[in-house]
Amino acid sequence: MSRRYLQVDVFADRPGAGNPLAVVLDAGACPEQGRGSLDDATMQAIARWTRLPETTFVFAPTRPGASYRVRIFSPRREVPFAGHPSVGTAHAVLEAGLAQAVDGRLVQEGLAGLLPLAIAGQGTGRTISVRTPRARLIETADPADPRLIGALGDLAPGALPPALMDGGRRWWLAEVRDEATLRQAAPRWAAIEALAEATGSMGLCAFARADADHDYDLVVRAFVGAPAQFEDAASGAANATLAAWLNHNGALPGSGGRYLVSQGREIGFDARLQLQVDADGEVWSGGRVRSVIRGHIDW
Amino acid sequence: MTVRRYLQLDVFADRPGAGNPLAVVLDAQDLDEAAMQAFAAWTNLSETIFLLPPDPGADYRVRIFTPRQELPFAGHPSVGAAWAVLDSGLASARDGALVQQCAAGHLPVTIDGQGDGRVVGVRAPRARRREPAAGTPALLDAALAGLPRGQSAPALWDNGPQWWLVELADEAAVRAMVPDLAAITALTRHGEVGMAVFAHADGLSANGDYQLVVRAFCAADGIPEDPVTGSANAAIAAALAGNGRLPGHGGRYVASQGREIGRDGRVEVLIDDDGEVWIGGRVQAVIRGSVDW
Q1: Which of A51, A154, A165, B96 has the fewest CB atoms within 10 Å, counting from its CB?
Q2: Mutate which of B1, B42, B88 to disrupt the A interface (most A C-beta within 10 Å)?
Q3: What are the Cα distances from residue A282, in Å, to A111, A120, A205?
Q4: Sign of CA dihedral B27, B30, B32, B33
Q5: Are B49 and B31 in contact (CB under 8 A)?
């Protein structure tokens, strides 16, 4: 059964700079074309086969006010919400003409409920941002806390203390003194894994303010400690959690509640994420998206 | 930006999702090496290939990349390359054969059948036994703790990559095995790519569509279990031929691999009259489209 397929690069200003995402459009039934709806087991099998961080499946909306419905799968399981899949799916839906933005807005229906997306600009300069679930502070800690000291090693700390935040998933957020220190840091995987397991968190999200004269304001590196150990290329949700923490401390970089993040350069990517904290304190996470592969999938 | 034809294939697969995925970029002539490597990292598949016009004497040229590096030769990418060349009309088989140009040289490819039933086979590099390093027996015992062993002794084989090959008592032992990845990592610490276990299929299966069952663990490479592995299957065939214990008939058999991790691949193996090992299988085109890079 043939369905439209896109593989897009999210948070990317150039090909390969961002986080890849597979999008299966037409995941629902279409009796006129003799097409059935994809079931859970098939979606999970496709998401395992693509080997990408996430694969999304687009259905017709079922709730009033929704533009479309999406289900998000990692190679291992279904995910209630994730930032880069939400942004990338909105791009694919717009490109395929499955929904149109109204007053610069789309509404995504997913397991986490209805979430608005903001669409700004046109063509290759278009940016898409998703309003992320509210994050809350769990605790702050001293850099010398025995749970943290192994993961942080001798990284020179910045102004803010390490904090554990929950934005759907939990992350330890740790400021590092400057950009050069953060870019040169070698992750201490065994300690990061132990930290993630001891605190029920994804791991360590380290950040530093950018040196002057860059086109971004903040540098972020996100080290996932469990269940697997890897550095994430571009983390929409982790960055949203970090924006909430910075806002909580009155320490937002950039201006007017908006700033740009550089992430992924140390692992061969070079993503740009746009963060915004609006007047209501809601955090929006977004960026540009490029369609790299366009075609059909037969499964 | 140039738009090129793109295929994402499932190799060694009788149905979509059963085999080993492969990204194929056609019309790759003006992509440079850095762009190829960057795209292969971005697809995140075990291999991405690029099809190019061949030099005289070959029907097509292919370059094979993992997310980290270029490879001179690999089995499942070569099977997929020949299938894609035929599917797209870039070349036609003569007398059931094609010649592939890759970094390892000019290599023969065989084509049997048509359409969905078409089987592509590639000749694997000759496999040789290697002497293991000192201290290996204890590491082997640790990696195989509690597993019922088969008739032949574990051995180290080299057909480009080096594989530890371990025969287990029967199909059930292979299928039920819970790998001790730390012990396998310790065993493969001298640059071996991994450890493959195998057994002859049980009576019921042997009458069915496969005669050997295989699993391959590449723990030191960060791949706990590989879905379908051309080089491991070729090395196992050489080891079985050396022991006079080939399953199937006339030097042909089919191996089942990947079922324990949600796949269900089939590798068709042939040992020819010269003792050369050929590995092949069927291919499914899962994604068809274009790539803009």
Answers
A1: A154
A2: B42
A3: 19, 17, 20
A4: positive
A5: no
Question: Binning pLDDT at 50, 70 and 90, where does residue B206 land?
Answer: low
pLDDT at B168: 98
A257-271 average pLDDT score: 95
Residue B191: predicted pLDDT: 85
- Is the Cβ pair B291, A9 closer than 8 Å? no
Hunting for tokens 């396998």 — which residue is that?
B184
C-alpha B24/C-alpha B51 separation (Å) is 8
Q: How far is B224 from chain A (nearest CA, A)?
A: 11
pTM metric for this prediction: 0.91
Chain B contacts of A292, Cβ < 8 Å?
42, 291-293
Q: How far apart are CA A79 and CA A72, in angstroms?
A: 5
Q: Per-residue confidence at B116, pLDDT binned at 50, 70, 90?
A: confident
What is the arithmetic mean of pLDDT over A163-185?
96
Task: Report ipTM (2 d.p.).
Answer: 0.88
pLDDT in tens, A6-34: 999 999 988 889 999 999 999 999 888 88
Could you confirm whether B171 is annotated as catalytic? no
Give which of B150, B16, B7 is closest to B82, Cα–Cα: B7
Q: Please give the torsion angle defined by the CA atoms of residues B26, B80, B175 and B168, in that order, rounded to the nearest 10 degrees.
A: -130
Q: Which pLDDT value is given to residue A1? A: 76
Q: Looking at chain B, how many residues does it have?
A: 293
Place of tokens 């999210």: A10
Cα gap A211→A242, rounded to integer Å: 19
Peptide bond between residue A227 and the one before it cis (omega within 30 degrees of 0): yes
Taking the CA of residue A176 and the nearest CA in chain B, the distance in Å comes to 28
Instruction: State the best of B287, B288, B290 to mutate against chain A, taking most chain A CBs within 10 Å.
Output: B287
Band of residue B1 on the pLDDT scale cut at 50, 70, 90: low
- The half-sphere exposure of B288 on its side-chain side, counting CA atoms within 13 A, is 10
Give pLDDT, residue A13.
Answer: 85
CB contact under 8 A, B43 and A48: no
